[in-house]
Each structure stands twice: as C-alpha cells, then as structure tokens.
Amino acid sequence: MSLPLILKDAPSHFNWDLESGTSKDFEALNLQITEHIQFNPTETPIQAHLFQSFLHMSGYKHPRPDSNSFKRCLKIAYDKIDALTDKDARIGYKLVAKCNEAIVAGRLKLDNDIEDEIEDLIEEQTNKSKACIDSVRAFALSRLGLPKYSDTEKYYRQAIELYPNNSDWLFGLALVIGRRARSNAPYYAFTEEMKEEEELYNQILELDNNHGLACASLSQCLLQQRG
Fold first, then answer.
1. Over the stretch 161-185, which tens digit does the pLDDT of each residue have?
2. What are phi and psi of 153, to 5 degrees?
3. Three-point CA angle 159, 96, 27, nearest 5°
4. Taken in order 76, 35, 135, 162, is the CA torsion positive or negative?
C-alpha cells in the first residue's frame, strides 16, 4: 500500500479534526502546552510534545508553519518515547509521531522514507498501543475547550480501560468531567458528574498519594460539595 493511502486514516493529529469547532489560537495553546511540560514531569509530556509539534504546522491562527520548531518538538517526543520500557506504549506513541512526520514531509515535498517503518508499527500495535494513541488524542482534545470535552472523555475512557492505573489519564478524565459539569451547573451545586470527578481524584490518590494536582482538585470538589 502506498504511503498516502496508509496516512489517509492513520493515527495522527492532522487526521483528528482538531482545528474545527474551537476558538483557540496558536499563541495561547503553545503557551499552555509549554507550561504543562514544565510542571508535569511524568509520562504526559510525551502527549504534550507531540501536540506541540503539531501546533507548529497547524492552522491555529499563527503567521506561518514552522517546520524547524516542529522537528525540535518531535525530536524531544522521540527521545522520551525511546526511553519507555513499555513496548506497547512505545509502539503506539511512535506510530503517531511517525505519521505526523510523514504527513508534514509530504506537505513540504521532502523525501521521507519511513513507509516500511509505519507499516511495521501498524502491524505490531496491540490494544494497549491503541490505548496510548487514544491518550494522545484525548490530551490534544482536552486543550481545545468545552466543545471538545465529550470526545476527550470518550478517548480517555477507552485508554483507561487498558491502563486502569494510569494516574495521568485518570486526572485528565477527571478534569474534563469537572469542567463540563461546572459549566452547566449553578454556582456551588454538586452534581453526579462532580461526584464522579471526586471519585476519580480519590482513585488517583490511592495510586499516588503525592499527586499534588489531584489533591488540590479534590479539595476544590469538597469545598463545592459543602456549598
């Protein structure tokens, strides 16, 4: 199969319709991701670096595509992916990275002989690899505001089915559930969605009692519950 046909439905930020239905611009998104990377020294920065590399070649209201920044961010993502000990995760993340790289190379009319590598990764991917791809998609969607939160929830839930103890993904799911609930509820109301958010924070803290963001977010939930 030719590379264009492989890439047509490949797992890639460029195929996930991330640029429609959001008012976000490049500067705001890029700053948000940069801050996330600085303050989250866990696995999630792989998703962040992949998304940031995409941003530099996207249509999010910035002057022109920046292929050098794309390559720089992608290189950081590759380094973090290669350091993973989980083979399934490594395959999933690398497949997204390679597909992004190939799509950009095609846009820039550059030689990029990675067709065989992409085909190999597609054949090697497992359900766990696909869960990691879902986490990449969920992370990107979560940055794009309320209109994308239903899809964010969908992909985080799919990912968590295969990695039920991934505290980063559980936290991402809890955040979007809570933010959507607060956007629809009266001030200081406590809804069923907020109850699930609280349960997720408790689950995260059982896995990692040093998860500062979950601890702070749980405190906010409890405060709202008291009214």
1. 999 999 999 999 999 999 998 887 6
2. -60, -45
3. 95
4. positive
**Residue entry with tokens 């959507």:** 180
Instruction: Parse the chain into domains and list their residue ranges.
Output: 3-143, 165-227
CB atoms within 10 A of CB 19: 15
| CB-based contacts of 154-162 (< 8 A; 24+ apart in sequence) | 158/131, 158/134, 159/131, 159/132, 159/134, 159/135, 160/131, 161/131, 162/127, 162/128, 162/130, 162/131
The CA–CA distances, whole Å, from 198 to 135, 182, 214 equal 21, 13, 9
**Structure token digits, residue 33:** 């991701």
- The CATH topology of domain 3-143 is 1.25.40
Q: Of how many residues is the chain composed?
A: 227
The tens digit of pLDDT for each residue in 203-220 reads 999 999 988 888 988 988
The pTM (predicted TM-score) of the whole model is 0.91
Q: Please choose, from the candidates 160, 162, 164, the residue with its C-alpha nearest in 3D space to the C-alpha of residue 139.
A: 160
Asked if 146 and 181 touch (Cβ cutoff 8 Å), the reply is: no
